[in-house]
Amino acid sequence: MRVANLNGRASLITAEGLAIDIEQASGGTLPHEPMRIFDHWAQVRNLAATVHGGVRFDSAELDAPSPAPRQIFGIGLNYRAHAVETGAPIPDTPLTFTKFVSAVNRPFGDITIDVPTVDWEIELVAVIGTGGRNIPESAAWAAVAGLCVGQDISDRLLQRATQPPQFSLGKSREGYAPFGPWLVDAASVTNRDALPLKCTLNGEVVQQSNSSDLIFTIPQLIAYLSGIVALYPGDVVFTGTPSGVGGARTPPQFLNQGDVLVSTIDGVGSITNHCVPA
Ligand code: ZN
Fold it and tell me: For residue range 104-145, what is the model confidence (pLDDT) as tens digits?
């Protein structure tokens, strides 16, 4: 099952790539607001198993599948090769920061390039369904509504502007958190612990890895985070990026106006972001 935010309305995306409005298809028993759909995930699953048809749509009509989450978590250095390329030690605790919610962007939204050190990070993103505190690892996948593709866009200069560095603002400029294109029901993804990720910049592969290389898995991250803070329906977890980011290259490479960033996770989906002038 795939659930998208189509023009502000929660919609099923069929295998044929057509959209079905959830509120209309349910005869009004399910809400149209994307942020309310997480409380009805099981009923949406039932609906998805019975509906047919659908309408065509344009990818530009897709908004973030959780457009107003209460919390967005980012995990740093969560792939070994990426920790190595940045010169940092392999973490023994998840390196956690926030992307402030005003950074949320559409899956095909533009990224404004108005500073010289904007970098890319493809990430597998988990969106919380039921939430709560002290969720054990064994129950963590059941707490996830769906998976999607994200870009943890970063202003590297701002990210390291203070000593010690504090990542959150450098990863929260306007539009720095595109994710989507929809949520794939986590329960339906058979290889959810081993998903191939690929990011291309102007057609050239810059990142290619597999989520099986995560240092802290999604269940481990959910158990860790929920042991400290409450997780809420619709909360977003950017799980970390593999190696191949621009700032770690020799010489460093950053995003320029006119660049096109395509981020794909097999079995989940693909998002495209154009880099534009302010
Ligand atoms: Zn990241």
Answer: 999 999 999 999 999 999 999 999 999 999 999 999 999 999
Which residues are in the CB-under-5-Å shell of ion ligand 1? 121, 152, 241
d(CA 248, CA 140): 33
- d(CA 89, ligand 1 centre) in Å: 16
Ramachandran quadrant class, 32 (left: phi over 0; alpha: psi -120 to 50; beta: rest): alpha
Phi-psi region of 180 (alpha: psi -120 to 50; beta: other; left: phi over 0): left
User: At the fourth CATH level, which superfamily is domain 66-276?
Assistant: Fumarylacetoacetase-like, C-terminal domain (3.90.850.10)
- Report pTM: 0.97
What is the Å distance from ligand 1's center to 179 Cα?
12
- Can you tell me the distance from the alpha carbon of 238 to that of 2, in angstroms, rounded to the nearest whole number? 19
Rounded to the nearest angstrom, the distance between the alpha carbon of 31 and the centre of ligand 1 is 32
Query: Is the backbone peptide bond immediately before 67 cis, with ω within 30 degrees of 0?
Result: no
